[in-house]
Structure formats: structure tokens, C-alpha cells
Amino acid sequence: MSSSSLHQRQQQQQQQQQQQLLSDPNPLSPPSNSPFHRPFAFLFTPTTLLVLLSLIVVLGVFVPWARTPDSLFRGAGDRSSPAAAAAKWRDYTLAEAAAFAAKNGTVIVCAVSEPYLPFLSNWLISIARQKHQDKVLVIAEDYATLYKVNQKWPGHAVLVPPAPDAQTAHKFGSQGFFNFTSRRPRHLLHILELGYNVMYNDVDMVWLADPFTYLQGRHDIYFTDDMAAVKPLNHSHDLPAPGKKGRTYICSCMIFLRPTSGAKKIMKKWIDELHDQPWSKKSKSNDQPAFNWALNKTAGQVDLYLLPQVAFPSGGLYFKNQTWVEETKGLHAIIHNNYITGFEKKIKRFFEFGLWLVDEHSYESPLGRL
Ligand SMILES: *[C@@H]1O[C@H](CO)[C@@H](O)[C@H](O)[C@H]1NC(C)=O
Ligand SMILES: *[C@@H]1O[C@H](CO)[C@@H](O)[C@H](O)[C@H]1NC(C)=O
Ligand SMILES: *[C@@H]1O[C@H](CO)[C@@H](O)[C@H](O)[C@H]1NC(C)=O
Ligand SMILES: *[C@@H]1O[C@H](CO)[C@@H](O)[C@H](O)[C@H]1NC(C)=O
Ligand SMILES: *[C@@H]1O[C@H](CO)[C@@H](O)[C@H](O)[C@H]1NC(C)=O
After folding, report:
1. pLDDT band at residue 275, thresholds of 50, 70 and 90?
2. Which of 38, 47, 63, 309 is most buried, with most CB under 10 Å away?
3. What CATH number is given to the structural domain containing 88?
4. Region entry Disordered: which residue ranges (predicted)?
5. What pLDDT was estimated at residue 205?
6. Does residue 346 lie in a domain region?
7. Host domain of residue 283
């Protein structure tokens, strides 16, 4: 349900309009490095030379700090030629990228294609407010995203080849979409095998508080329920009972894993389930049912932890039950904009709930203005 809504795309036109809306040209020009391009004869008297020298020292010390936040986030990447930078990022491996992004042995990952850059930036602003942005690694699903993110925020995006076919990867219910989401457990398993804790998020999420404080104990895997029905505050942290379809409705949108054999077992099972129940015209599945079957089948062998609903509500609860939102005010950690399909509708809803941050707060985003 999560990814379904996330990847449901509207027509190309609307996206382009959206991107135009969001891509105001940056009015700030890069700082000039050489204010002294014209040597004049008077410069050669000892006094002016001394004055000049002190000026250069002062500028050298202070100018780097006086740059705009946008340019501070840029690294060496964008000073080299575009072709050299492109070659560098094209060959950047998941192992290198995870080693760069991981802090305290933990990486936060998402998977993003170009039309979702505004959502990525929105999500990043909310993470920056909780001071966890340095751990973020963006798994780019196309080369445009890889280059753009790394140009603005060097080292924080990686592409695991082959890039999914952009034409077929995003239509919800299509085989291309299924193939695209099927990559998720592979990426997560790879990161676990490299030895990191990993938190996966869909980018149609906003953090209101630090989710890491909820990852209590030493369980293998932490996840959230995608159901909309209100649960008691003291609900159990075990896997819920299966629903109507004989399986649970755990969200594949927000998962935290420790690099344990139990967590790896679930990711392998998820990959197997995706193989065993491949996409068909009839089922038009995404990756979430397979994840739930993997949880069901490994339940006895893996240490699972269901996160509290009050902190991690589904979009079906948060956006649809105002009474509940008011009753539980201050207890929410991550809000997921699901139970709705369409790029524009998601933006509108985030906007109406004060969760669309990219327009007014782009300076807080590690990506700056897009
Ligand atoms: C690293 O982990 C320790 C122990 O869990 C924690 O106290 C500390 O705040 C963490 N540091 C960062 C930068 O996240
Ligand atoms: C999806 O993956 C299958 C198996 O790898 C492949 O045969 C098929 O061509 C892919 N389809 C699309 C639309 O990407
Ligand atoms: C939650 O609290 C209620 C009443 O306070 C109690 O009856 C119930 O057993 C508790 N449930 C759990 C899972 O602890
Ligand atoms: C797994 O699914 C089956 C079929 O719906 C169900 O009977 C069983 O209780 C589930 N197991 C767990 C641990 O949830
Ligand atoms: C909305 O939330 C309130 C307060 O928690 C709850 O009593 C009510 O059943 C919820 N409504 C629906 C439709 O779930």
C-alpha cells in the first residue's frame, strides 16, 4: 500500500509543471575568489602591499565562512569537470557509499527516482531537524538522480546497476514497478552484509521526532503496522494477527534492521517470496505482501519488534482521524503520506497538514534549492 501510492505517477506534464514550480533559479551566485584581477602600479608601494596582504589574509579566513549554506554543502565534486564527476559517481559502489554515509555503524537509506526529488528534499529537511541527515544514503534509481544529489551533496547518493528502466519502473501495478521494488530487499541485505544497521524509509515520510529513541532492545528487525484502526497505547510489540488475506499488513515503508543473522534471514526470505510469487497481470502485486509472508514464515526464528502505532501511524490513521491526532499530540515520530495515490495529491495533503517543507525551508535541506 505504501509503495503503491508513492510510485503512482501522474502524467509527465504535471510532474514537469511541479518541477518547474520547485526549481526557482538560485539567485545566489558563487563567491568571487579573486577581487584583485587588475594589478595597478600603486600596488607596489610597501604600505599598500602591506594593506593588501592583510586584506588577503582576512578574506582568506572569513570568506569561506561567509558563503551561502547552499555552497557550503558543495564539495570538490562540482569543481571538477562534469564528465569527470559523472565518471566518478557512476563507479561509486554501495560499499564505498555506505562506508562514507554510516555514522556509528548506522545508515539511513531511501530509494529515489528523479520525479521524487522534491519529496526527497522534504524528507531530508525533517531528518536534518533531528540531526540525523549525515547518515543518509540515497539509492538513486536513475543517473539523473545520482548526479544531481551528489552534485549538491557529494557522496550521499549511489546507483546500484543496472538502473531500472525509467519508462516502465513507476507505473503502479506494472511488472516494471514490481521489478523496481524487488530491488529493495537486495540493497538492504547487501548493507547488512557489510555490517551496518540500516533504516529504510519511503520518501513520502516526514519525521516529527527522532525515531531512533524508539528502537529499544536488541531485536533483529523493527517495523510498523500499515492498518488504520486505532490500537490501545499499550499494544503488543509482537507480529499482529493475520488479517483478511491470511497475512499481516506490516508496512515495507519503514524498516530498521541490525546486521544479525535473523535480519539477514528475513531479507533472504523476502527475496525468495518475491521470486515465488512473481508479478502477474492478475495480482499486480508490489513488494509488501512478500515482505509480510517473509515475516510470517520466519516469525519463530527471528526477533521481531512492532513499533508503537502512536509514534508511527499509517497515513490512513494520521490524515483521516483528527480526534486521534489531537488525543496523541506530541507523541508522533514519523508520518507516512500513504492511503492516497498521486504525486499532486500527496503534495497537497502534506501542504494542508503543514508537512510540505521544501517551499519555505529549502535552506534547511542538504540539497539546498532544487
Ligand atoms: C552513537 O551511539 C551512541 C550509543 O548508542 C550514542 O550515545 C551516540 O549519541 C551516537 N552518536 C551519533 C553521532 O549518533
Ligand atoms: C522484470 O524482471 C524480469 C525478470 O528479471 C524480466 O524478465 C522483465 O523483462 C522485467 N520487466 C520489466 C518491465 O522491467
Ligand atoms: C493494556 O492496558 C489494559 C488496561 O489498562 C490491560 O487490560 C491490557 O492487558 C494491556 N495490554 C497489554 C498488551 O499490556
Ligand atoms: C502465518 O500465516 C498463517 C496463515 O494465515 C497463520 O495461520 C499463522 O498464524 C501465521 N503465523 C504467524 C506467526 O503470524
Ligand atoms: C478516531 O480516533 C478516536 C480516538 O482515538 C477513536 O475513538 C475512533 O474510533 C477513531 N475513528 C475511526 C473511524 O477509526
Report:
1. confident
2. 309
3. 3.90.550.10
4. 1-32
5. 98
6. yes
7. 73-364
| Higher local confidence (pLDDT), 72 or 53 | 53
**329 CA to centre of ligand 5 in angstroms:** 14
232 CA from centroid of ligand 3 (Å)? 8
20 belongs to a structural domain? no
DSSP state of 165: P
Distance 6 CA to ligand 2 centre (A): 21
Contact 344, 9 (CB under 8 A): no
**164-169 mean pLDDT:** 66
| Residue 100 DSSP class | H
Regarding the beta carbon of 233 and ligand 3, being less than 6 Å apart is answered no
Q: How far apart are CA 70 and CA 362, in angstroms?
A: 10
Residue 7 lies in a domain: no
Q: Tell which residue, 287, 283, 279, 129, has the closest CA to residue 200.
A: 287
**Nearest atom, ligand 3, residue 236 CA:** 13
Kindly list the protein residues whose Cβ atom lies closer than 6 A to any atom of ligand 1: 103-104
Reported as a single tens digit per residue, the pLDDT across 229-248 is 999 999 999 999 999 989 99
- Measured from the Cα of 228, ligand 5's closest atom is 14
Structural domains counted in the chain: 1
Specify the pLDDT at position 53: 56
Coil vs helix vs strand at 66: helix
Task: Report whether 124 contacts 205 (CB < 8 A).
Answer: no
Q: Which ligand 5 atom is the nearest neighbour of the CA of 317?
A: 14
Please report the atom of ligand 2 found closest to the CA of residue 174: 13
Q: Is the CB of 173 under 6 A from ligand 2?
A: no
